[in-house]
Write a structure and sequence with these properties.
Blueprint lengths: L4 E8 L5 E7 L4 H7 L17 H17 L6 H12 L2 E7 L3 H9 L6 E7 L4 E7 L7 H17 L8 H11 L3
Antiparallel strand pairs: 1-2, 3-5, 4-5
Helix pairs in contact: 2-3, 2-5, 3-5
């Protein structure tokens, strides 16, 4: 069960174990009774606004339109990967030349937007690589930047981006895109 709430207190017991008090924004009574005194998995992280399904669909629609404008056409996945590399967050790390193919295969198996890119030599036997994260991991700000980049590409290519009034309103209010 996933929920949001606020941390309220932390106490340290005499044996060194710790108790965390969390106030939750959901009725947890029934689940508590079934889980009390049983091992549970716990992950606590800062809550953030999730991106909407609309943003995801809009991203793919823009990628499709941009791809169609190329001669020969590009797939929406190729355009998406170009956008991820252009503006998305990535991890920069050296990779042994012996491990390049294995690391690339494993990284890119995470999904369409998980791009492995060799960018430079990094000393004997190593390549400097960028490991780009797919947009499924993006927060609202990162997704806004990706959508703005795609919209800018449409404008530069003189491709129409037709939006309903509701879609325009969501872009401005939720994503800060004008």
């Amino acid at each position: 069960m996933k929920m949001t709430g606020n941390l309220k207190d932390l106490t340290v017991n005499r044996d060194g174990t710790q108790n965390i008090t969390v106030t939750v924004n959901t009725d947890f009574a029934a689940a508590f009774d079934s889980l009390k005194d049983k091992p549970v998995s716990v992950e606590i992280k800062k809550a953030q606004k999730s991106r909407s399904l609309y943003a995801n669909n809009f991203c793919w629609a823009l990628c499709t339109e941009i791809g169609r404008a190329f001669k020969p056409p590009l797939s929406k996945h190729e355009v998406y990967r170009m956008a991820i590399v252009a503006v998305g967050p990535y991890l920069q790390t050296p990779v042994s030349v012996w491990d390049l193919e294995n690391v690339k295969r494993r990284w890119e198996s995470n999904g369409d937007g998980w791009v492995f890119e060799v960018v430079d030599n990094d000393g004997p036997g190593h390549k400097l690589c960028h490991l780009h994260f797919g947009s499924s991991t993006y927060n609202v700000e990162e997704m806004r930047i990706l959508i703005e980049w795609l919209m800018d590409q449409c404008l530069q290519m003189e491709l129409p981006v037709s939006l309903s009034k509701e879609q325009e309103k969501e872009l401005v209010e939720r994503w800060g895109i004008k």
